């Protein structure tokens, strides 16, 4: 009787249920199963059960930890840089009305361009003959041109600067939303009490946009763990000099699609998912705790 | 004139500098796309000595750009259309019908958002490979046809729709399907714009999908085509790379400028709440 009564609702739920079963639940179990198998997709008849080998290899693999390290190294620079830029831009935009939306639009442009396009442009800007290095050379700030792709410690910081340029617009908009939702009377009261700009920012604005800050920080690390296109494009599908640019997803891609070890690649996927899940939980805890 | 103090002047100066830094790379791209090839190598940072459209002409000669644009537009529009309609249907069932277990569904959809996409790369690839979907449009469209995030966004908008409209329609004898299409969907237009923009951009800029699943040049989408083109082109033909990059980047920036209010609203939704 229920089914007859709510058949439209059930019909409308159908796309999601089908999607969930086919593209989430089934692949999840497939992934779990694969993580205990040695699979070569080109000759599937050779598949055999290997127990925990993939898990042990996955966790013990120095490439895996190198890729995780690279992401955190990259994110540390990216987040500090983009966080400061985004916050400053948001605070500045909050102070003005004339041309405010034009500036907001312009600063947001890199966000809407694709990573592919942005990376090609940025690559030439950062090149030895590009504008940054030529300017620095002409001002004697740099002795010899730098080929960032061949240096051991440079790929991640350079990609962090790229990401900061490409993505700080999103953070700026999120911070602007947070600042806009602050009760005006709080800031006016601070003005009357003679609080300076710095005190207003550190004592009122920052504490009140804490949910936005936590969101931005964690979502960046989570996205960083899934970074792929930038590295793939710049290092000829490899991990860069001594794997200095290897990211977890590139590691997964190489294991699965170049070495054709789908079982081990599935395990890497699961390990990453667990890591990302922990970070998501952390973010929810931090933001929820503050709002209550 | 308004009163113009020192602080304000400093802010405008700061914002101007920031805009210049953000825009310079695009300027760099455009000036280089109009240089004759060799000049890009030895003087990449100056204005072209002769403005030449050679790069643009060569790109059209060397690849089937029309086909690639068609593929990208077709795939992105299909993904966007399916997402809008399918996600709205699910959101409607949860938010606006009295279906039992609605909270359980909502919680399931919300928790599915926390599972990172990377987990599914390998198993879904194996499925698609087995089903023979590799190198087809459907592999780029169907797996992304609905998303938990879009459902959640539309659900939030739908809970704000006044029940009175729906009750009135029900009293008039309208079926739930009719109510969905004739009453709720038209009221969802701003929400649909948000979902549509985010989905369209995601599909348009997708790199991993075409990388894994597309083998034939005739099936390439813009991002993959640009990547391959840039990898294959000899260093002496840089003008082609710049011409193609410009052709891909400029339309997006144009669309963005005309629709920037919606874009920025869509991204604000990504934030908290």
Structure description:
The complex is a heterodimer of chains A (292) and B (273). By secondary structure, chain A is an all-alpha fold. Chain A is built from 14 helices and two strands, in the order ααββαααααααααααα. Chain A is globular. The mean pLDDT of chain A is 88. Chain B has 273 residues and is an all-alpha fold. Chain B has 15 helices and no strands. In chain B, α5 (102-112) crosses α8 and α8 (148-159) runs antiparallel to α11 (189-204). The longest helix of chain B has 32 residues, at 65-96. Chains A and B meet through α2, α4, α5, α6 and α8 of A and α1, α4, α5, α6 and α10 of B.
State the share of residues found in helices of chain B, binned by percent.
over 70%
> Largest chain-chain contact?
A-B, 90 and 86 residues
Assembly type? heterodimer
What is the element string of chain A, with H for helices and E for strands?
A: HHEEHHHHHHHHHHHH
pLDDT averaged residue by residue of chain B: 88
The coarse overall form of chain B would be globular
Proportion of residues in helical segments of chain A = over 70%
């Amino acid at each position: 009787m229920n089914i007859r009564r709510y058949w439209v609702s059930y019909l409308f739920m159908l796309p999601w249920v089908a999607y969930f079963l086919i593209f989430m639940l089934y692949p999840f179990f497939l992934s779990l199963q694969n993580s205990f198998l040695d699979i070569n997709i080109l000759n599937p008849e050779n598949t055999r059960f290997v127990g925990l080998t993939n898990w042990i290899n996955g966790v013990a693999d120095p490439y895996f930890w190198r890729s995780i390290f690279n992401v955190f190294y990259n994110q540390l620079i990216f987040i500090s840089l983009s966080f400061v830029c985004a916050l400053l831009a948001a605070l500045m935009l909050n102070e003005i009305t004339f041309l405010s939306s034009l500036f907001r639009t312009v600063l947001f442009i890199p966000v809407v361009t694709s990573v592919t396009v942005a990376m090609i442009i940025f690559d030439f800007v950062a090149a030895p003959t590009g504008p940054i290095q030529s300017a620095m050379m002409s001002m004697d700030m740099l002795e010899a041109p730098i080929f960032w792709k061949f240096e051991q410690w440079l790929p991640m910081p350079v990609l962090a600067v790229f990401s900061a340029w490409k993505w700080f617009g999103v953070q700026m908009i999120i911070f602007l939303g947070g600042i806009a939702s602050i009760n005006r009377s709080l800031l006016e009261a601070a003005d009357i009490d003679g609080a300076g700009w710095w005190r207003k920012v550190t004592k009122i604005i920052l504490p009140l946009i804490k949910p936005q800050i936590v969101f931005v920080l964690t979502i960046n690390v989570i996205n960083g763990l899934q970074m792929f296109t930038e590295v793939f494009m710049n290092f000829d599908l490899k991990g860069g000099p001594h794997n200095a640019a290897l990211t977890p997803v590139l590691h997964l891609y190489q294991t699965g699609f170049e070495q054709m070890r789908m079982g081990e690649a599935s395990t890497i996927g699961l390990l990453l998912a667990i890591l990302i899940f922990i970070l998501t939980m952390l973010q929810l805890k931090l933001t929820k705790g503050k709002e209550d | 004139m308004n009163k113009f103090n020192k602080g304000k002047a400093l802010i405008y100066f700061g914002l101007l500098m920031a805009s210049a830094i953000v825009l310079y790379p695009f300027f760099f791209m455009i000036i280089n796309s109009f240089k004759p090839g060799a000049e890009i190598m030895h003087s990449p940072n100056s204005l072209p000595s002769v403005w030449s459209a050679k790069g643009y002409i060569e790109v059209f000669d060397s690849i089937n750009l029309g086909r690639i644009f068609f593929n990208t537009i077709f795939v992105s529009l299909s993904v966007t259309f399916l997402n809008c309609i399918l996600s709205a249907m699910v959101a409607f069932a949860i938010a606006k019908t009295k279906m039992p277990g609605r909270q359980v569904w909502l919680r399931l959809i919300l928790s599915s958002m926390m599972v990172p996409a990377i987990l599914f790369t390998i198993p879904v690839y194996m499925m698609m490979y087995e089903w023979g979907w590799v190198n087809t449009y459907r592999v780029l469209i169907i797996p992304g046809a609905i998303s938990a995030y879009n459902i959640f966004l539309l659900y939030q908008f739908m809970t704000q729709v006044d029940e009175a409209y729906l009750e009135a329609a029900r009293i008039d004898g309208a079926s739930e399907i009719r109510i969905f299409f004739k009453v709720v969907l038209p009221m969802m237009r701003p929400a649909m714009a948000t979902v549509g923009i985010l989905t369209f951009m995601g599909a348009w800029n997708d790199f991993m999908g075409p990388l894994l699943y597309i083998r034939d040049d005739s099936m390439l989408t813009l991002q993959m085509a640009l990547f391959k083109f840039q990898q294959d082109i000899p260093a002496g033909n840089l003008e082609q790379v710049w011409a193609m990059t410009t052709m891909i980047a400029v339309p997006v920036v144009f669309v963005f400028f005309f629709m920037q209010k919606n874009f920025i609203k869509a991204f604000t939704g990504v934030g908290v709440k």
